Amino acid sequence: MTINNNKVQLTPEGFNELKNELKTLREKVLPKAINRIAAARTLGDLSENYEYQSAKEDHLTLVGRIEEVTDIINRSQIIKKSTNSSIVDIGHQVDISINGSDHVFVIVGEWEADPQAGKISHKSPLGLALIGKKVGDKAKVEAPAGTIVYTIKAIK
User: Please, what is the Cα angle at 106 between 101 and 109, to 5 degrees?
Assistant: First the structure.
């Protein structure tokens, strides 16, 4: 495994979510995966045992995720939400308008990003365009369809 020493910026909420995920993976999911392998061993010839092969592959994937989450936690830098809500920064909720349609996003660290849940990375094109802007400012993002202009309506 390659060690990556780059810091990972996370909000306190994102850090806690990762810690909870790691705890769940180690304490609940991993023991079930190990039990599944043990049960599959009893089903006969391991070279032709699909359940055993499947259980081993799932176990390897799980161990990889545990290593990944552990690495992220170890490299994390907790970003506290700025008390200055006049300028967009990590941790802020930003209300924006585009072509008369309103949207709400929270600016988060890259590992926390979940656009479906309204969480965008500070390193995404939109996140980069919003960081440092004030209410009333326009943020321009280049997209394949052309330049998209967002107007910042509120920062919380």
Answer: 140
